[in-house]
Specification:
4-stranded mixed sheet, hpI Integrase, Chain A, 309 residues, elongated, DNA polymerase, domain 1, 2 domains
Amino acid sequence: MNFIASTLGRFFPKHRTLAEWAKTYSLVVQAKPIQAKTKQNRASHIRRIVNQLGDRRIGSLRAHDFAAYINEIAAKHPHLARRMLIEARDMLREAVAYGWIDRDPTLGVKTPRVKVARARLTLAQWQAMYRWSVEHQPPWVPHMLALALVTGQRRGDLRKMKFSDVWAGLLHVVQQKTGERIAIPLSLRLGALDLSVGEVVDACRSYAPLVDTDEALLLRKTTGAAPVGASMSWRFEQARECALGAHDDADSSPASLHECRSLSARLYDAQGIADIQTLLGHTDAAMTALYKDDRGLDRRSGKWREVAV
């Protein structure tokens, strides 16, 4: 930084460098109520930005400066580019709030378009989350994790499962997304956990009061009401973050509750269960399914598709 800019910087912050602002901004980030791993990740992002643009006067930075930098990263690491832009925006927004600049130059930078790849959930990760959940979360959460894994069903379908859906040795599910009517044998056993669907269903009876026996939900709060979908997802994320730490893969998003469905399919496939397609409620994956699709006829006629075990 030249002498004139240095002198002006004593009185006008916009003449100071981005690196100088980064020192203050780093303290702001460290003071935030976020996990230690997240603070480490953000500190790494700040260093990257400073290495690229740190010697520039903060008041001289324009949208094209950040756009060029973000696009350079996006060419090889699109997910990292998104995160870096998020950090840059927060960094410059705080600079405005602190009076260093009058306008955030990152506002004109377009967010890189990327196809988000969700990280797969492993059995070891699920087990770590389950153990943490048993110790630290409401009782319905570990039951949700177990139910999601042994049945392979979606969040919305887990939420509305009732004990009255169980008859003739089967758990009956009308899938919200597709309308598929799936009958899952209570005898279906997930070898990786050595648990059957029936055992997981029975375990759901005693952890919270059954307010209405006929309409009692498998997953319920102490009031008997179903947890809302957003709460189910948030509790999963909480267990994931606390049991596994912050997700630090720049090329994928962290596993969501929906990934229990994928893990379920993979575990059943590994133990030789052939009818995973029916369990998940999918139509045939093969191209011939286009010709076999009954266009919802079975659903409209009330026919149940039973999972073969």
